UniProtKB/TrEMBL annotation:
The lineage of its organism: Eukaryota, Metazoa, Spiralia, Lophotrochozoa, Platyhelminthes. Keywords: Transferase. One of its GO terms (biological process) is polyprenol biosynthetic process. The gene is DHDDS. This is Alkyl transferase. It is an enzyme of class 2 (transferase).
Length: 186
């Protein structure tokens, strides 16, 4: 299964809902937080890994809906830095799932190019396993010139971490003379 399901068949009620939504003003960018997969699995007596796979399939449906509604940018908060505190087996499964899905992107690059989808992976990528970093970089390079739609995948992210890195980048920019220090700050 890829990130976009071109064979997805809408039910009657879903077609109706899509048509109703299309009558109003729709955003160009939406964001989703991948949350609740473990609860979903526990409530149904499934393994956590099955919950994560099911969550990914629902994400695929959601991205398909967004595409069909003309929403051109989707951000997916997939794995926060806090998630590294989970049991090692679960983190390993999620990293392997990420690697598997990035490989699918690479294998289906023609579809991404045809649809004009640029994939960006955002977060503290140095925290990810080397294979995931390599595959993510490859996907970003393959899709960097696509301009019709953007899929932002946030991995190893945290707001505090992003702000810390941004402040450090600014500090280094001022130190190296690339940025000028503001006259209003003393």
């Amino acid at each position: 299964m890829s990130w976009y399901d071109r064979e997805y068949k809408y039910s009657f009620i879903q077609k109706f809902a899509l048509n109703v939504l299309k009558q109003g003003v729709l955003p160009k960018h939406v964001a989703f937080i991948m949350d609740g997969n473990r609860r979903f699995a526990a409530n149904r007596g499934l393994l956590k890994s099955e919950g994560h796979r099911y969550g990914f399939s629902k994400l695929t449906e959601t991205i398909t809906w967004c595409h069909d509604l003309g929403i051109t940018e989707v951000s997916v908060y997939a794995f926060s830095i806090e998630n590294f505190k989970r049991p090692e087996s679960e983190v390993n499964f999620l990293m392997n799932l990420a690697a598997e899905k990035f490989q699918e992107f690479i294998d289906k690059n023609d579809e991404l190019t045809e649809r004009g989808v640029c994939v960006r992976v955002i977060g503290n990528l140095s925290l990810l396993p080397p294979v995931v970093r390599r595959l993510a970089a490859q996907v970003m390079l393959l899709t960097r010139h696509n301009t019709k739609a953007t899929l932002n995948i946030l991995l190893a992210y945290a707001t505090r971490d992003e702000l810390t890195h941004a402040a450090e980048s600014i500090r280094l920019g001022v130190q190296e003379g690339v940025l000028l220090e503001s006259p209003w700050i003393s």
